Amino acid sequence: MGVGLGLLFSILAIAGAIATTVFGYTYAVQHAAGEASHALQVNSGIAFGVAMTAAALAIVAIHLYDN
Fold it and tell me: pLDDT tens digits, residue range 28-37?
C-alpha cells in the first residue's frame, strides 16, 4: 500500500511541478509581450503548493507503510 500511495503522490507532485513550469513560462512570455495576466502567477503558486504537498504526502506514505 505504501508503494501505491507513494507512487500516486509522486506522480501528482511531478504533475504539479510541470504545471508550475508551464504557468511560469507562459507568464514570462506574455509579460515580455506586454499582455500578462496575473492569474497565471496565482495558478503557478497553486500548482507549486500542490506539488510540495503531494511530495510531502508521498514521503509520509512510503515511511508510514514501510516494512
Answer: 999 999 887 8
